[in-house]
Amino acid sequence: MKKSKPYSSLLVIVLFLILINLSACSAPVETQAAVTPTAIPPTDQPKATPGNQNQRRFTIGFSSASNNSDYMIQMALDLINVNEEYKEQALTNDLILLNTDTDTPGQISQIQKLIDQKVDAILVFPSDAQGLNSVLQTAVNKGILVFTVGVPLDLPGVYYVGLDRQFIADTYVKWLADKTSGVGSLVEIMPNSSNLQNTFILAAFQQSLAKNAGLKMLAQESGPADFEQSKQIMNRLLGKFPQMNGVLAHEGMAAGALQALIQAKPANFPWITGDGSCQFLKAWSDYLNTDPNFESIAVTNPPGATAPTALRIAVNMLEGKRIDPNQLGGKNSASLFIPDSQTITKENFEQEYFLQCMGKASNYISDSILTDIQVQQFFQK
Questions:
Q1: Can you give the residue range of the structural domain that contains 374?
Q2: Cα 296 versus chain centre, distance
Q3: pTM exceeds 0.85, yes or no
Q4: 236-283 pLDDT tens trace
Q5: CB atoms < 10 A from the CB of 149, how many?
Q6: Does residue 174 share a domain with residue 286?
């Protein structure tokens, strides 16, 4: 029998070690136990967003035949911002904004497009008192919520959301009557009445003036709501009627009219009404450096109190809330008057000028939008 070679034993040992390693590799690998997330205490749980649980989003449309003024541009921006707020809550889709300059047939086409797109609510800044009735009635018949802003329409089923224009007119006229001891000799500077809202506002002022027989209207002139144009009108009226002691200057005309008076330096500086534009409020502020006793009045006309607030009301109604009938007034008991006008006089001028216009451009209009919590005042509890 042959003796084994020395390396034979070494080979056996190597093979044995290989087998041991293979066994180790085939053994189950121990895994780390899964970590169970720590539960968030109930008080720290993320709050469920109202309206986003098993509910579809609503689509809101806006129609306007005008987009050529600072007021309308600011309103559209406010409207977009409010809709974005509801989009973040999964309550609305993108806003459908149809607001190019057009005529009444063009606005009818806008509204029909919104109907065809099956929107849930339509907000309308109307261009005509009756020309839109047929297409708006079609929308109402299809179950679409319809709101007018700027001007109420005499159409059952259509809501109006906006300011109480008669209250604003009465406030201005009463101030002039008080300052002139009820025997004012006035001139009136107003924007062109081609805009339906301007026509509506002027009618409100006519009612106010009719209740103050001692106020004599020397002349009324209209023109584009433009700073330079209103300056020219004021200068022309001042030359014709130097005995005037009051100026009823409407929205968009007040800043130019005041600047014309400041530059003309009449011996008897007439009382003049203003508006909520930062352009007028700045002119008022600047003139106080020359005449600390100067005073005026401005009743704000916030763009946000119209369509943007109407959008909030529409969303709440689409969620199933019912308007409190006691909150409705006006034509067909379908108007919701927004208590959002701020009256600025000498008593609160410095505070309001700072709050409304500090850091703002001169064409900015004093603004405010009711919050979702604030619009709950219009709904049944």
A1: 60-163+303-340+366-378
A2: 26
A3: no
A4: 999 999 999 999 999 889 999 999 999 999 999 999 999 999 999 999
A5: 28
A6: yes
